[in-house]
Amino acid sequence: MDNFLENNIIRFVQILRSLGLQIGTSETYDALMAVRSIDLTDKKQFQSALQATLVKDAVHYPLFHSAFEKFFVESPSRAQQVEEKKEYVHEVEEAKKDLAFQDQPLDLDEQYRDMYAQLPAEAREQMKEFLKKTSEGKNVSRKFQPIVENVIKGALEYHRTHSSLPHMLPVELTGVEELDAVLHQVAHHKEVIDLFFQNMASIGENDYTEATVLIRKLARRLATRISRRYKRSSKIKRIDVRRSIRAGIPYGGTLLDLKYRQKKVQKPEIVLLCDVSGSMLKYSQFTLQFMSGLAEVLPRMQAFVFADALEKIDLTGFSLARLAQSTGWGEGTNLNVSLNKLLTTYQGLLRPSTVLIILSDTKSLQAELAAEKLKKIKQMIKEIIWLNPLPGGQWSKYPTVELFKKHATMWECSSLAHLSNALRKQLAN
Q1: Which InterPro entries has this protein been placed in (predicted)?
Q2: In the chain, what are the domain boundaries?
């Protein structure tokens, strides 16, 4: 096996990591060793060897297959991929120019600009005309921009739901032209964009039942990991009889090598804060459904929703209808007010064993005051975990992200795959 193939396998691993698969150096080494034992002229054997060593969960098979078919191609196909990516970047830049209010670009992420670029010409012209008339309206100031943004988002979501616009899989670009071209191809591959990887904001009402079933499966899987009764330990706490007997088999059953276990680490007390402002509503809906599935193994979990005020909710039998009845549903965001109420009214929940989980895109009024309160809360509790649905590659564009990252462990969380991975790493490891 020459270095060219080794380098390609390593680059392919980088593609899979950008798509969200958890692949370490040991898996990469296993893949490199596995391809030594196969017929490299047989593409099926080669694909099977990489799949067996790099993919740990069956839900990732469609994603792996799509990435494999689009990465291991001949040079002309690769050049075409690069050209298609350049055309797409140009279309998105043009969309950014079109989607402006009073000569200022609207605060829309790549998902929405991608939807706009794929609209029929007539629909794009209607949207441009709306923005033009709104910008030139009497007594219309810059403060109306958030309202205009919500209108445009709603219109784009409507077109996606009723016009079968393709979804785009959220991916983390590498900065390498050829690799990003492959990622672009996979991100727009309809067969792999299922509910697990799809941006939660784009999941339509017709898919709610299927999404709920998937969330329950993911929650049960995570709950099993969280609810382990003991963890193994080198410290002398309590004899692990089964492991000790097994270790004594080579010695004729004599217990020469005693194994020990200690009681599990106490389950954390979870305080969950979900942003239910207009742009965050769907993310909060699915996250609350996920967390309600963990309530049995995390009985001390308390849940709140907030926009411009904080409201406590019951996760038992959670539903979207119940969320829609909250007083802050669809309003603007003021995290400072909500954290202030948490500190005053619910201070008893903020103990050294508490883990505070915040789901928000960090876009909040009085952000600096909110950051000060977050710093105070961090000194009172065990940990702060921030689930951010904004694409990780765009975080540097938002000053509030850096402001809140100083006091919290921040995870990208735009899909159920992101959500499951973040909670697994933070709560079950």
Answers
A1: Uncharacterised_CoxE, vWFA_dom_sf
A2: 3-72, 92-163, 230-263, 269-428
pLDDT in tens, 128-158: 888 888 888 777 787 888 888 888 887 887 7
| Contact yes or no for 311/341 (Cβ under 8 A) | no
Sign of CA dihedral 232, 237, 241, 244: positive
| pLDDT tens figures, 257-277 | 888 776 555 667 899 999 988
Give the span between the Cα atoms of 118 and 113, in whole angstroms.
9
What pLDDT score was predicted for residue 2? Answer: 47
For residue 415, what is the DSSP state? B
The token duo for 351 is 């103990």
Q: 0.90 exceeded by the pTM?
A: no
Cross-strand pairs, 354: 269
Query: Among candidates 53, 52, 65, which has minimal Cα distance to 19?
Result: 65
- Please name the CATH architecture into which domain 269-428 falls: 3-Layer(aba) Sandwich (3.40)
318: left (phi over 0), alpha (psi -120 to 50) or beta: beta
Specify whether the CB–CB gap between 12 and 50 falls below 8 A.
yes
- Give the whole-angstrom CA distance, residue 267 versus residue 298: 7
Distance CA 191, CA 66 (A): 8
Give the whole-angstrom CA distance, residue 422 versus residue 151.
31
Q: Which long-range contacts (CB under 8 A, 24 or more apart) does 220-229 make?
A: 220/293, 221/420, 222/294, 222/420, 222/423, 222/424, 222/427, 222/428, 223/293, 223/294, 223/296, 223/297, 225/424, 225/428, 226/267, 226/294, 226/297, 226/298, 226/427, 226/428, 227/297, 228/264, 229/264
